[in-house]
Design brief:
heterodimer; A: alpha+beta; 3 helices; flat; disordered N terminus; B: about 290 residues; alpha/beta; TIM Barrel; 2 domains; 5-stranded parallel sheet; 3-stranded antiparallel sheet; 11 strands
Chain lengths: ~70, ~290
């Protein structure tokens, strides 16, 4: 493999790192994402000693899903 | 929520058992009627639907990759409204009716997707399981007739805006991977190692798709020791990202409480090695 095949990779923030990885472009390191159920989230928060809402950062999650908000039907 | 709190109803009116950790379907509003006009279809243009999403994008969108959760987007939405066995029979006995049902679902998803794109999401995220452990849930021929054109239209909302599209689809869906590439899929999730062999997947589709997931929540994480988990995590990265990119690394599904926290510790420790175990060397990538 010759020197011409080496590309510099800028250190990216999490958002840019995901976009580049999804597009199969060079990244400084692979993005990571660990999803969990509500019950598992409570167990992990206790295990790590952090509030549940801080778990995504503790896990270095790179992706966030957003939902619609609506009055729950009865 | 029903009176005793055991069923929670989603936006579409399907009911889910609240006493379980996963998704357990418990109410199908079309179970006893195929009259689509009698269903109280939700309004995707309703005011306020995206208020919380917009706040999150504003607060977190600068450095986090934000996608709309369009799970159970088409086939799964159809069976959640009609019932699984019923819709499987409908697909054979009255496919025209199923097409009308899917058209109405797709129209809502497309309208929602357009609103999410306008709100500033970074990509599309759809979920729709088409596979079982050893095969498709129904034939690729039926998938191509009923699902493919509507899924393509849903993908197009994001693709036309220059955004990537992620699809979560469990199980062995090898038969339709060429179709998913054809309609523009960017990233396949969850790439379960038990059903989609990673070396094969990377060899056949690594130049066309990126991947998300890959670490077994069926076997490795619930049952493996630290050494097994470390080896599986690094192998996943090496096999699905041999060039050091093309992978959003993580468990193949949402982790459930059958996974010991010490196994999560082992996975996180392995991440440090796995994330740079491709061809990345000191800030450079060999291509």
């Amino acid at each position: 493999m010759g020197a011409s095949s080496i590309q510099s990779v800028a250190v990216a923030d999490r958002k840019a790192r995901v976009l580049r990885a999804l597009r199969r472009e060079p990244v400084d390191r692979l993005p990571v994402q660990t999803n969990y159920t509500a019950k598992m989230g409570r167990l992990l928060a206790e295990h790590f000693g952090v509030p549940v809402e801080e778990l995504p950062d503790r896990l270095d999650n790179h992706l966030l899903r957003v939902d619609i908000s609506y009055p729950r039907p009865v | 929520m029903n009176e005793d709190g055991t069923i929670e109803f989603d936006w579409w009116g399907a009911g889910w058992d609240t006493r379980t950790e996963g998704y357990w379907h418990s109410f199908a509003p079309l179970k006893d009627s195929r009259d689509l006009d009698r269903l109280a279809w939700p309004n995707p243009e309703a005011a306020g639907l995206l208020d919380a999403a917009v706040r999150t994008i504003s607060a977190r969108g600068a450095d986090t990759f934000v996608v709309p959760n369009l799970g159970m987007c088409l086939f799964e939405r159809a069976w959640s409204l009609r019932g699984f066995e019923a819709v499987m029979m409908d697909m054979i006995e009255r496919p025209e009716w199923v097409e009308e049902l899917l058209d109405r679902i797709a129209a809502s998803q497309i309208a929602l997707s357009k609103r999410f794109v306008a709100a500033g999401v970074d990509g599309g995220y759809f979920g729709d399981d088409y596979g079982a452990q050893r095969s498709m849930l129904f034939s690729p021929r039926l998938w191509r007739r009923l699902i493919k054109p509507r899924l393509a239209a849903m993908f197009a909302v994001f693709l036309d805006a220059g955004l990537p599209v992620i699809l979560h689809s469990d199980g062995d869906i090898r038969a339709i991977l060429p179709d998913l590439v054809e309609i523009g899929l960017t990233t396949l999730n969850p790439v379960q190692p038990e059903v989609l062999e990673h070396i094969w997947l990377s060899r056949e589709y690594g130049s066309k798709l990126s991947f998300y997931g890959g670490i077994s929540t069926q076997d490795v994480l619930p049952t493996g020791n630290a050494e097994v988990i470390r080896a599986a995590t690094i192998a996943c990265a090496r096999q699905l990202a041999p060039g050091g990119t093309g992978l959003l690394l993580g468990p193949s599904h949402r982790m459930q409480s059958d996974i010991p926290p010490r196994s999560v510790d082992a996975m996180l420790e392995a991440f440090d090695a796995a994330r740079t175990c491709g061809a990345v060397v000191q800030g450079e990538v060999r291509r």
